[in-house]
Amino acid sequence: MSLNDTINDNALWANLDQRQKELEQIFHQAVKVRKLSAFGPMAALLRNIHWTSAFLGLTGLADISAMGAAYVIQLQESRYRWSVELSAVLKSLLKRNREFLDARPGEPSPGVFINSQKAVLQGLNLNRPVHTGDLTEIFKRRQINRNLASSCRQLTVGQDKTFTHAISLPSFARRRHKSDRYLSMVYIDLEDQTLSLEELTSTLDEAYGKSEILLHGPLGIPWKNYQTYKAKKPYYFLLDTIQESQRWLQARDIKGKTVKVLKSPDIDPANEPRIIIREVSSPGSIKPTAVPQKIGELQPAAGKAAGGRKRKIKNRELQIKFPVGAKLILIVSTIIILAMSTLAYLSIYFFKGEIKNQVEDTNIALSQTVAKQAEKEIEQFFNLSNLIFQVGSAAGGAAALIDDFFYNYKSLVYVGVPGSDFEFANRDWFRDNRISNEKAVLGNIMAARAADLEKARNGETVVVNVSPFIPNLKAPVLALAAPFLLGSQQKALVILADIGGSLAESVSSRKGKTTTVIINSSGEILAHPDFNKVFNGENLRESPVFQEMYSKGLTEGQIRFQEDTLNGPVKAIGSFKLIPVGNLGVVTTVLEKDAFSVVMSIQILNWSLLGAVLSLAVLAVYFFSQSISKPLKELTLATRMIKAQNYAAISIEPKTKDEVG
Fold first, then answer.
1. Cβ(475)–Cβ(501) under 8 Å?
2. Among candidates 208, 274, 277, which has minimal Cα distance to 241?
3. Which of 21, 167, 200, 630 is the most buried (most CB within 10 A)?
C-alpha cells in the first residue's frame, strides 16, 4: 500500500461517500423493478460502511449499517414479497446514512476525555447530531439483534492496582467465547497498516462472520500515550481464535499488538486465585444467663417502678383488645377519607367533563381551520397550473420563463398533461433533492398512479400521495389530478406539489398534544406531523375515524374510539372535517391519557394531599389519645386494686384538669 493509500480520515470519508452512492443507485434500480432480490448487493456495501464508520468512531452509523445488512439478507428469504413498507425501511436507512455524511466535521477532532484517569477517545464531533434510535427499534422488531449484527463498542483501557490492563467485557461477548480458544484483546493503528482499506475490511468481516472477532471499536488510550500517538488511529479487537492472537494477526498481514490474553485453553481452572471467607465470632458478645421476672413481680406499687420512676401500663396487663387511641384514629381516618374522597371525586367528575368539552371544541376547531387552509392551497395549485399554461403558451415554451415561474412558486414540482406537449417540471427542485433522472421518476409516478389518472379523465378530482415513489425527499409530495379538455380530447391535468411549506406545515404547527392529519377517500395519509408516515405510504383505511367519516356521509363530526398501538390498545378522541375539493378529510385526534393528563395530575395531587392530611391527623389523634388513655388506664388499675383491697398501692394524681382528671 502506497503512502497515498494510508487509512486516514479523508480516505475513510471518501470511501463512505462512494459506497453511499453505490447503495442509492442499487436502491433506485430495485425500486424500479420492484423485486426484493435486487436489494441483495446492498448487504456487502452496508458491511463495508459498517467497518469504515467504526474506524471513524461513528458507532451509531456502524450499528444501523450492520443491522441494515442483516435486514437485506433477511429480505432475500422466499417468504417475503415486495411491498412499499419493506423498501421504506431501506429508504430511511439510506437517508440516515446521508445525514451522517452531511454532518461531517470540517476538521479532525482533537479527541474526547472520557474518564477521570485522563483517557482520551479519538472520535468525531459531528456538525449536528444524527439520531438512530428509531431505525434500531425498527430492526429490533424485525428480530435483528444489534449485538450479533454489529458488536461495535467504544472501549477504554486503563490500569488496575497490579498495573495490568483492567478490562470489563459485556455479557454477550463473554457468552460467545468458546472454551477451546484464546480470548485476547489486541489493538492496531489504522495508519500503520500495509493492507488497503478494502482488503482490511474484507479480512475483518470474514473473521467476524467466523466468530473470531467478538467485539471491536475505537480504543481510548491514556493521555500520555495519546500525546505521543497523536497522529495514529488506535482500534481494538476482542479475538476468540484457535491460534494465539499474534500469530492470527501475522497470518492475515495485520500489524497489531496484544494488550492482554484474557482466557487461554492452557489455563487450569484449579490454579485460578480464590477468595476464602471464614466465619468468626464477634468479640465481646454476651449471651443472657437468666430470664427476667414478670413485671408484676418486680413492681411494689401500681404506678411506681423500683427506682421510684412512673411505670408505663401496658394494654395486655389490663386485657384491653381495642384501645381508645386506635378507635379514635379509625374514626377520624374514616371521616377524613370519606370527606376528601367524595370532594375529590365530585370535583374531578365535573372538571373532567369540562376538559372533555374543551378538547372536543378544540379538535373540531383545528379540523375546520386546517380544512380551510388545505382547500385554499389546493385551489391555489390549480390556479397556478392555469397560469403556467398561459406563460408556456405565450412564450412558446421558453425555458427561461418557465424556470422563472418555478423560481417564484417553488412548491410546484411538475405541471402538465401526460402524453402531450404541455409538461413543465421544476428543474431546480429536482436538483435540490439530488434527483438526476427526473423523467424516469415522473414516469414511475404516472405508471404507479395510472388508475387515479383514469379517474381524473372521467371527471373526478383526485389527490394522492406520491412520496414513496420519489427518493431523497425532504418534504412530502402530493399529486393532484383533475379533468382537462385539451382540444376535443378529455385528458387529465396532473400537478405534483411539495407541501413541506404549506399543508405539511399547517398540520405540524398545531400546538399541544393533538395530532392533525389529512387523508383522501382511499385512506392514504397526505399530510402528517411525522413525515416518515407519508414517505412510507401509510394508510388509515382501517381507522374508526375513517369509517365514521366516509361511511356515514357526514361533513364533520366527533368520535371516541379505541385503536391498537405497539404498546397495546389506547382510547382516543377524534374529530373530522371533509374538504369538498378532492373529497379529502382532515382528522384531528388526541389520546385520552394526554387530554386528561391534567385531571390525572390533579388526582395524584388529591391523593397525595389526602395521604399527608391523614398522616398528620393520625399523629395528632395518637398523641391526643395518649392524654386520655393514660389516665384511664391508671383509673382502671386503681379500681382493680380497690376491689382487691390493696389501698396502699394506689397512687393517682390529677393532671389534665378535665372530666378524666
1. yes
2. 208
3. 200
Which residue among 224, 247, 269 closes a domain?
269
Residue 417 CA to residue 423 CA, distance in Å, equals: 6
pTM score: 0.44
Cell of 645: 383491697
* Residue 259 one-letter amino acid: V
Residue 285 lies in a domain: no
Amino acid at 106: G
CA 603 to each of CA 335, 573, 597, 660: distance values in angstroms, whole numbers, following the listed order: 19, 21, 10, 42
Residue where a domain terminates, one of 269, 301, 332: 269
Q: Per the domain annotation, does 308 fall within a domain?
A: no
SS3 of 421-440: the string is CCEEECHHHHHHCCCCCHHH
What are the beta bridge partners of residue 570? 563
For the beta carbon of residue 498, count every other beta carbon within 10 angstroms. 24
Are residues 651 and 551 both part of a single domain?
A: no
Number of domains forming the structure of the chain: 3
Range of the domain at 416: 354-595
Alpha helices, H only, 167-240: 171-176, 197-209, 223-228
For the record, the C-alpha cell of 586 comes out as: 382532515
Mean pLDDT by 10 residues, the chain (661 residues): 67 91 92 89 93 89 92 84 86 92 74 49 72 89 85 67 54 81 88 88 91 85 54 80 92 89 69 34 34 36 46 62 79 88 85 81 85 88 85 67 84 88 87 87 90 88 91 89 84 88 73 82 88 89 85 82 78 87 88 80 85 88 80 78 67 67 58
CA distance linking residue 366 with residue 372, whole number of Å: 10
Strand partners, 564: 569
Structural Rg of the chain based on CA atoms: 39
